[in-house]
Design goal:
247 residues, mainly alpha, 75% helix
Length: 247
């Protein structure tokens, strides 16, 4: 009996000590996780969150103005291969064949007309852009600041893609009429059907094609501008940008 009691007395402190160790380990894990989460959204030393938010809004505003300004210029899309709007679907796949068949002028006229429509309409993205900036929260700003080189661009893409699509499609449609997209497409198809028989019955949604590609180009340019502001002091053209991104 005495041996049993002595053994039990030894086991209880050992079990309690083991339990305490587990609790301490769990607490350390939680504290480490909290520190990690806080560091991911940490505000730079000496800067309040409101200033950080204003800096990020400024970065998006400046980057957006530059991106839209570049794309809205003549050849903003057409003259730059990385954002140029290509022919839709199988036409793009067969463009090389059509050029070799002597239809290069038809291909270029159609492609240029689509890009001209995007260049004419892209400036209308600005109101949606500015409205999104006004809705950015302080917590959004903290996450964006600590994110990657295009975190603000991805925030903008997530918040605006649907609205931009809805706003831009009717404007793209008007611009397409002005730049003769439908006529250029019909002329190309009439000449190309003998070389690409599968074009018979091919009727792509040109409005959706031009709109979606135009927005892809906008996000690409915006991402480039954001990276410049984050990485290159010369791109920080306002005092607020220098304050936020120079720290």
């Amino acid at each position: 009996m005495a041996i049993t009691l002595w053994t039990s007395a030894m086991v209880v402190p050992q079990a309690t000590a083991a339990w305490d160790d587990l609790l301490k380990q769990g607490q350390q894990l939680l504290e480490g996780q909290n520190r990690s989460e806080q560091s991911e959204t940490a505000v730079p030393a000496g800067m309040d969150t409101a200033t950080l938010a204003r800096g990020l809004k400024e970065a998006l505003r400046v980057g957006g103005e530059r991106a839209i300004g570049q794309l809205a210029a003549t050849d903003g899309y057409y003259g730059r291969p990385d954002v140029r709007i290509p022919l839709p679907g199988m036409l793009e796949s067969g463009a090389g064949l059509l050029r070799r068949a002597g239809l290069e002028s038809y291909v270029e006229t159609f492609e240029r007309s689509m890009n001209r429509a995007a260049e004419q309409a892209i400036s209308e993205a600005t109101p949606v852009f500015l409205d999104t900036l006004e809705q950015m929260t302080l917590e959004d700003a903290r996450r964006i600041y600590s994110g990657g080189d295009n975190a603000a661009t991805e925030y903008f893409r997530d918040k605006t893609s649907t609205r931009l699509q809805q706003r831009m499609q009717p404007l793209i449609s008007e611009a397409m009429s002005a730049s003769g997209v439908s006529l250029a497409y019909e002329a190309l198809v009439q000449q190309a059907e003998s070389y690409l028989p599968m074009l018979q019955g091919f009727s792509p949604d040109l409005n959706e094609h031009v709109t979606s590609r135009a927005l892809e180009g906008l996000f690409l340019r915006l991402g480039e501008e954001e990276r410049l502001i984050r990485q290159q002091p010369a791109a920080r053209t306002t005092e607020l940008l220098k304050q936020v991104f120079g720290s």
